[in-house]
Amino acid sequence: MSFKKLRIFTLLLLLVLVAGTSVWEGMLVRGWLRPLEVVIYPINGDRNNEHSDQTQAYIASLSQSQFDEIGDFFQQQSQRYRLQQFPGMHIRLEPEIPAPPPQADSGARSALSAIAWSLRLRYFALRNTPFWQNLGRIRLFIVFHAGEQGKPLQHSLGLQKGLLGVVHVFADRTQAAQNNIVIAHELLHTLGATDKYDAQGQPIFPDGFPEPDREERYPQHSAEIMAGRIAVRPDQAIIPANLAACAIGPKTAYEINW
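Given the sequence above, the corresponding structure tokens read:
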């Protein structure tokens, strides 16, 4: 066999292995037969600016218990559906990763650019986290920023293939509850859930409503987690204060195999 054919064969074999691993991991986590393993890797998103020391101090103060609310949310929501015996969720906080994750294109993303970014993220995960140890586990790279008043953070993303997520949040204890909402949202993306808000950020009826079958549609009492806001009127939605004010709606439950 020539070197060129050998190289092509090797690449095809690697692609088959990657695809097979993704399918196996997806079936494992979406089967809900064992506790969901989630690994959090903090990253200083301000490493190259004047807020670096402030953000670094915040990361140093993190504790695993700050993310327990996410597991409690899944436990409570699972009782609304067929998972009466929810296997639980184990969230583990790992040491900080010094390198930043690859950035997705800020503008309109083509399918090709999305695939390219996905591959770059997988390579980043391979270089910076243990591979075999994390098979079947969801890896979330939490990028902390000091942030600026009135300026939104970069868009967070979760990938079902690879069970990977990049989540941008604030390095501020007063934002910890909001951070957990964003983390839970992206975590659900890795499990197959889709966004349920429109271009203006308003919850889409019925999928973006936690109680779409209520006789009185407005106001909703909580936010569908994949919509991110509480629909109070047809033209108004408010940001929930914490995960206790959020819910997993019927469509999201179906998407994550509940």
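The two ends are 49 Å apart (CA to CA). Try to locate this feature in the token string yourself.
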